[in-house]
Amino acid sequence: MTKANARERSRMHGLNDALENLRTIMPCHSKTQKLSKIETLRLARNYICALSEALEGGLSTESRAFMDTLQMTGCNHDPLYLVCHSEYICKIRRFSQ
C-alpha cells in the first residue's frame, strides 16, 4: 500500500505542477487569487476556443469583448468573472454552429 500511496502522491504533484504552469501562461494570471483546478481548465478551454475562432476567420462580438477585456484591463477582473464570461461565450459559439 505504501508504494501505491507514493505513486498517487507523485501523480497528484505532477498534476498540480502542470495546472500551476497552465495558470501562469493564461492571459489572466493573478498572483493574488489562485484559480481552482476546474476554473483553470475551463478558462484555458474557452481561451483556446476564442483563439481558434480568431484563426478561423474572425471573432464573434462576444469573443472579441472577452479578448478585449483580457487585454485592456490587465485582468483586473475577478478571475471567476472571466471563467463565467468565457463559459458564456463558448456556449453561444456552440449554439450558433
UniProtKB/TrEMBL annotation:
GO terms for biological process: axon development; camera-type eye development; positive regulation of transcription by RNA polymerase II. It holds the Pfam family HLH. CDD domains: bHLH_TS_NeuroD. Signal peptide: none annotated. InterPro entries: bHLH_dom, bHLH_transcription_factors, HLH_DNA-bd_sf. The keyword Transcription regulation applies. GO terms for molecular function: DNA-binding transcription factor activity, RNA polymerase II-specific; E-box binding; protein dimerization activity. One of its GO terms (cellular component) is nucleus. Residues 1-51 form the BHLH domain. Efficient DNA binding requires dimerization with another bHLH protein. This is Neuronal differentiation 4.
